[in-house]
């Protein structure tokens, strides 16, 4: 029974826990056992909080036994948390040596919401250092491996959360999405991941990478599970100056509606600029089949053009490093984290030595790019121009959404690549986020849903669904309808994860 519990969706687990068919302790322990069984070969977790998770689970079971109603629809269902949200009872390292073993003095708002919802936190998952990367190979504590093929990457930066879901180590997970870090790993691992509208999930306690782009979001193995988690973590937070004071979107109701399989009246736009012969053939064929499926469900599908999307990659890799350069200046060896001090060093020397030892190559690369782009004489030519492109991309979206309700594209131009294959070629790595970047630049919402397995290599492919700001429910209606029509997917083989 214990092993079977790890195969159930979060919604199914919640139903069984709330009806007291099984206990939250049993479910949580089953997932802790699964982590002990397989994570040594996958590296999805940086920290496992078994004792704390079981305490949380016992509290849920005690309340249910006492006849109290569940504090949330997901009460008792355990979760894996990306190690970039602060937690008072376990380390927050951001997968960086500069924060090794650092324990925050406060919980992130998202962490607090999870605790209040009765969701046991199994531990903190691996990521590219400070969420900078597309493969989870930039972690200071070693890479995460893809459960579908352990010689390949799980995507990034949230590869740990995605791998934990795909390998059944957790039924739910939290990621962050700065340029695709929820959606791209979801695509490469056949899981579901949503980047909510910017400002609808609090960033208080989310260690900043690029503040105008970062957004926490829900990850699951089904669209409904992801919707249930979305409603738990969303909402206005006065402690976050970028938080939108607006009602939480009805994404669970939309997911349940979509599961009925009727998309009549929905207009879907295929983005011309996100469908290229340079993409992997198996990705394109899977995407084209997905579009045909949407048509069969009653959606009206048209092609739309967003001509400025071709400049998104260049603009993003000026805006993001510029914000990184500013945000990571706080790691100065004076207040918290790593400190390299040989005794007779000046403050400047301590700072330089600490940052040299504490930051990895990709973080250093982005700090240097950003510092250069913001420097006197270059600000207008680089950063200023990138901001103008960002505005043009937002206008492309606005024009597109005058014609259609949602936009679709492949989530990633290619399936999971071999570990080490792109490490020496940053541009090749950056290209994996080609389809996801525009949404972040505009602040809109988007989701990746598995569209099947590539005929090229048998690896997962993702369908990206995009919607305007504060229209997150559209993602869930279309995603759930497609998921129901697509039918069950294969699972990673036990050889890969066992």
TrEMBL record:
Signal peptide feature range: none
Region annotation (Disordered) ranges: 137-164
Annotated organism of origin: Rhodococcus oxybenzonivorans
Positions annotated as active site in the UniProt record: 82, 157, 181
The protein, known as: Glutamyl-tRNA(Gln) amidotransferase subunit A
Gene Ontology cellular-component annotations: glutamyl-tRNA(Gln) amidotransferase complex
UniProt xrefs under InterPro entries: Amidase, Amidase_CS, Amidase_dom, AS_sf, GatA
Organism classification: Bacteria, Bacillati, Actinomycetota, Actinomycetes, Mycobacteriales
Domain of life: Bacteria
Described purpose of this protein according to its UniProt entry: Allows the formation of correctly charged Gln-tRNA(Gln) through the transamidation of misacylated Glu-tRNA(Gln) in organisms which lack glutaminyl-tRNA synthetase. The reaction takes place in the presence of glutamine and ATP through an activated gamma-phospho-Glu-tRNA(Gln).
Keyword Ligase in annotation: yes
Amidase domain ranges (all copies): 26-475
Similarity comment: Belongs to the amidase family. GatA subfamily.
A Pfam family matched in the record: Amidase
Catalytic activity: L-glutamyl-tRNA(Gln) + L-glutamine + ATP + H2O = L-glutaminyl-tRNA(Gln) + L-glutamate + ADP + phosphate + H(+)
Quaternary state and interactors: Heterotrimer of A, B and C subunits.
One of the protein's GO biological processes: translation
Keywords in alphabetical order: ATP-binding, Ligase, Nucleotide-binding, Protein biosynthesis, Transferase
Enzyme Commission no: 6.3.5.7
UniProt enzyme class: ligase
Gene Ontology MF terms in the entry: ATP binding; glutaminyl-tRNA synthase (glutamine-hydrolyzing) activity; transferase activity
UniProt key word Amino-acid biosynthesis: no
